[in-house]
Amino acid sequence: MSERGRMSWAIVTAVALACAAGVLAPPAARAQAIDRHLLDRLDPATGDEVWKIAETARQQGVPYEPLLLTAAEGASKHASRERILAAVRERYAALSTAKDALGPESTPSEIAAGAGALMSGVSPDTLAKLRQWRPKGSLLVPLVVLADLVTRHVPVETASSALLHASRIGAKDADLLRLRSRIESDIQKGVSPAAATLSRLQGLGAGPPGAPLPGGSR
Amino acid sequence: MEHEDDRELRRRVAGSYARVGPVDDEAKGRLMDRLRREDAPGASGVSGGTAARDAGSNSGERGLLAWRPLTAGLAVAASLALGTALGWTLHSRLGSAPKAALSSEIAEVPSTREVRLVQFVLAAPKASHVTVVGDFNEWDPIATPMARRVDGAWTAAIPVSPGRHVYAFIVDGDRWVSDPAAPMAPEDGFGIRNSVIVVGGQEPT
């Protein structure tokens, strides 16, 4: 091949490689741009600290976007740097524990919901048992309802037992959401959270004959 | 349908470009000589580079040869820029929708993931301004203003990806309130209780 021919091929090859690099580079760069954008509202030092925690989470396979969103939430609520970092660290720990308790097949939404339940006081063991009773179905609604009940001052043991029982008897998501709504309504009318939960749970289903309900009542 | 005049115009323009000029044998001979010189390795007596090769040739040819590496570099740079622009465009068209709700940059782009339109409602007849804020709009306090209905309720319809979402309302710019009709989220460490909504992904009834 002549020298001019070789140079022509070299130019063509370089152009093709440059085009390919340009096409392939943006997705990774864009993902980075999205994540950092969530930290723009923070001062650089806080943003870097949050980024480090998020990177650690990502390397461990723990959903990291909730951490960035927690930081963005703190910024919007004008929280101090210390509160933002404490909230991010707490959520990271909860996400990590939820991921272990719910199993490797859990979706990011389930893990986030599980983290919410853990942060409200639910034990990792309850999360693992919920997965046991619903191995294939989504745990999103049960976890959200569980966290809600505890947040409304239903004792953790009562709320956990109620959701485990409901899952054991095959209650559907719509049933759980209806249960939550009725318990909330009863609490607002002055019924104690524990009594409201046990009462409404009986209306959900008695389960197999002889099966005890949470709290020992029947 | 193409007009007859347009076809005639195209034919004449194409014809003028395709016209072959008369061949000057002497000019043809000079061209072939030059091509033979350029193809011969080391013909110029210079190793590498092209500038010294121009010794003995006229100044116009020297300038043309000296620009060749620069031309190649510019071509590579232009291709990289074009490829990057193409890549960004492609990625935005095929991009991830759920994060569309989180980034104003992607929000306007079609998505391949399912998105549901969720209507948020807050009864606040005495409020003058209400926004809804949550993980679906990056907790931006001003991203999603709500519209007031005649009955005093405030509403906003937002595209939200399936999954669990946390949100709150901001009344009159500085009062954060949770949704009284929705499940509550645990304390978030910022002293303000949020609400939770589950979009799609539920077990069938």
UniProtKB/TrEMBL annotation, chain A:
Keywords: Signal. It comes from Eiseniibacteriota bacterium. This is DUF4142 domain-containing protein. The keyword Signal applies. Residues 1-25 form the signal peptide.
From TrEMBL, chain B:
Residues 1-59 are annotated as: Disordered. Residues 117-180 form the Glycoside hydrolase family 13 N-terminal domain. It holds the Pfam family CBM_48. Coiled coil: none annotated. InterPro entries: CRP1_MDG1_kinase (IPR050827), Glyco_hydro_13_N (IPR004193), Ig-like_fold (IPR013783), Ig_E-set (IPR014756). Gene3D superfamilies: Immunoglobulins. GO terms for molecular function: hydrolase activity, hydrolyzing O-glycosyl compounds. Residues 1-11, 25-40 have a biased composition (Basic and acidic residues). GO terms for biological process: carbohydrate metabolic process. Belongs to the 5'-AMP-activated protein kinase beta subunit family. This is Glycoside hydrolase family 13 N-terminal domain-containing protein.
